[in-house]
Amino acid sequence: MRGFNVFVFMMAVALGTGSTGCSSEAGSSRAEPLSEASPSHSGGPPATVSIFSVEKGELVMVKKVVKSEEEWRDQLTPLQYNVTRKKGTELAFSGKYNFAKEPGIYQCVCCGTDLFTSDTKYDSGTGWPSFWEPIAPENIRTESDRAYGMVRTEVLCNRCDAHLGHVFNDGPQPTGLRYCMNSAALNLKKE
Ligand SMILES: [Zn+2]
Questions:
Q1: In angstroms, what is the span from residue 81 Cα to ligand 1's centroid?
Q2: 163 alpha carbon to ligand 1 midpoint, in Å?
């Protein structure tokens, strides 16, 4: 890891207060993790994961996408990199999908995994694109996030571990969940 931890710390300091906004509408409600966090893999061949493919209409076994910091930096814009690889948060009402209504599939901007359908998108009024359900539970994973003195449930892409946003218990029925996502972590594949 060498200097990586120091780098992460510096990034966290640099991100500072702007990174807590996604919880602003959640009050003190606490979302419990929806699934056990997967162990992180370092070294060895990439693990495989079962992901639901909208195109194929079924679960498919795929290799996890593991890339170096440099590779992610080359592939992503600075904002996309900051959000997905450094757990940043875009400013409220700044993301391109906040008000988006076009039908389609929201995919991971890093690896293309199908994450959410426009059918489950709703206007939460928070300033971030919000969904009440992912496309499939297999396509995301959650972790308890205790950063910034809060307990939140982080949502990550299950194939590439991209930070996507957080999930809260104040969403609409039928799930009662609010997946508060960053536009910068998503790519809308229009129908
Ligand atoms: Zn991904």
A1: 12
A2: 9
**Alpha-carbon gap, residue 41 to 11, rounded angstroms:** 22
Structure tokens at 52: 């639901």
C-alpha angle 93-25-170 in degrees, rounded to nearest 5: 120
CA atoms within 13 A on the CB side of 143: 16
Known catalytic residue: 180? yes
- Give the environment of ion ligand 1: residues with CB less than 5 A: 108, 110-111, 113, 157, 159-160, 162
144-158 pLDDT tens trace? 999 989 999 999 999
pTM for the full predicted model: 0.78
CA 96 to chain centroid: 15
The CATH topology of domain 4-10+45-190 is 2.170.150
Which residues, including other chains, have CB under 8 Å from residue 86's CB and lie 6 or more apart?
Answer: 8, 11, 12, 15, 163
Cα separation of 103 and 82, whole Å?
Answer: 27
